[in-house]
Amino acid sequence: MQKTLIVIGGGAAGFFCAINAAKLNPTLRVIIIEKTNKLLSKVKISGGGRCNVTHHCLDIGELIKNYPRGYNFLKKALHWFSVKDTIAWFEQRGVALKTEKDGRMFPVSNNSQTIIDCFLQEAHKYNVEIITSCEIIAFQKENNLFHLTTHNNQHFNCNFLCIATGGYAKSLQFQWLEKIGHSIEKPLPSLFTFNMPQHTITQLMGVSVDEVQIKITHTKLQTKGALLITHWGISGPAVLKLSAFAAKELANKNYNYTIVINWLTQYTEQTLREEWLHFRQQFASSKIFSKNPFALPNRLWQYFLQQSNINEEIRWADVSSNQQNKLIKNLTAMEFEIKGKTTFKEEFVTCGGIKLNEVDVNTMQSKIIPQLFFAGEILDIDGITGGFNFQNAWTTAFIAANAIGKTEAYSLSS
Q1: More confident position, 406 or 117
Q2: Confidence at residue 239, expressed as pLDDT on a 0 to 100 scale
Q3: Domain range for residue 337?
Q4: Which CATH number fits the domain that encloses residue 263?
Q5: Which pLDDT tens digit goes with each residue over 43-57?
Q6: Residue where a domain stops, chosen among 319, 343, 367
Q7: Which residue, 399, 388, 392, 357, is CA-closest to 378?
Q8: Per-residue pLDDT, 410
Q9: What is the value of pTM for the model shown?
Q10: What's the confidence (pLDDT) of residue 345?
């Protein structure tokens, strides 16, 4: 009798599990059930519509440093399906990937539709059935068979079930999984920008700095990277990385906290103070605005001068000690009050999900319910921006597919 795998979720992890399981065992009936009328929606919008497939970090020990949560679990999982395996998987299907300077990897076509077409072609090739606009609201298991119920009271049965629904924003959305005995790590937003309502620096929206250091006061949380000033506050890789690693702490603060920005990462406040005499001597007769020794954007340099009560026409030699101290402080330790957050584009990511101690890392199978599997962001694993969340999807989905396919193949031969 033909066995059936149902994958709940028509996103990256769901498709990757389905097509790999179907390829591994052609006798297995594979069905994807997606609650919306859209398939692979995150794949579509990722990387500004180019699809940031993964990150070119081939060392697993280095790669997992980009995952604020779940890194030990993922470290083991990546030995089953790594970044190298991801690159090879796509290339074997005619999808060449390219690496950009920051390590992000995209299809050479620069179009996410290339990835979507690849998945749809694989699904068609291996007879994966796809059902959309169908939400599974509950399921139970009896006699080694899963019985699924939909929002409009339809029913499906299957031997294997993989849940790849993506992350949920609210704890209530996990109730249908808690009812079957699984524990949930409370979901919280990750990858968000910092809001500074009515702060004067927002007048510089569009100005960016290649590298800054950001610290959250009264914590050990800090990061370095590029920063972008927006009309609501600040964004960019440094902010997004910090938001991911500080997700739980910032939620506990209700997203009201203070940060300190060093705009000149080559200096501390102390070392810049020591270097200042050199600048005063070197540019003594020059107007301070026209001689910016730090390669900062002109608008930002002008802003720092204004905030330090320094007239742009004044010569370097004529800056008072009080003005000098203010400018040094603003350049290396400027404080900002943050009030609230904004989701980064459409790339909403949550931390939280199915607790990892309830999942077998070698199979992605539930330790509570046999033949139930998880893949992707539904697990309590999340990475920073840059292709890391997709790599988690590919890795966990492949492991689940491999375990399901091999289990079914073994049952047929025995």
Answers
A1: 117
A2: 96
A3: 192-343
A4: 2.40.30.10
A5: 999 988 999 999 999
A6: 343
A7: 392
A8: 43
A9: 0.91
A10: 56
| Mean predicted confidence (pLDDT) in 111-124 | 98
Looking at the structure, do residues 338 and 354 belong to the same domain, yes or no?
A: no
pLDDT higher than threshold 60 for residue 413: no
Which CATH number belongs to the domain containing residue 381 in this structure?
A: 3.50.50.60
Q: How confident is the model at residue 408 (pLDDT cuts 50, 70, 90)?
A: low
262 and 316 belong to one structural domain: yes
Under a CB-based contact definition with an 8 Å cutoff, are residues 283 and 293 in contact?
yes
Contacts of 348 (CB under 8 A, 6+ apart): 167, 169, 189, 191
Indicate if the alpha-carbon torsion angle 197, 198, 199, 205 is positive or negative: positive
The predicted pLDDT at position 348 comes to 63
- 230-255 pLDDT, tens digit each: 999 999 999 999 999 999 999 999 99
Q: Residues 176, 101: one domain?
A: yes
Choose one of 305, 326, 343: the last residue of a domain. Answer: 343
Of 17-26, 260-269, 402-411, give the lowest mean pLDDT range.
402-411
- 254 and 385: one domain? no
Whether residues 122 and 173 fall in one domain: yes
Average pLDDT over residues 322-347: 90
List C-alpha distances in Å: 230 to 122, 209, 233, 234, 281.
41, 12, 5, 5, 36
- Residue 324 CA to residue 273 CA, distance in Å, equals 9
What's residue 366's pLDDT? Answer: 98
Query: pLDDT-based confidence at 183, cuts 50/70/90?
Result: very high
**Residue 314 and residue 240 share a domain:** yes
Structural domains of the chain, count: 2
Same domain, 165 and 206: no
Same domain assignment for residues 406 and 322: no
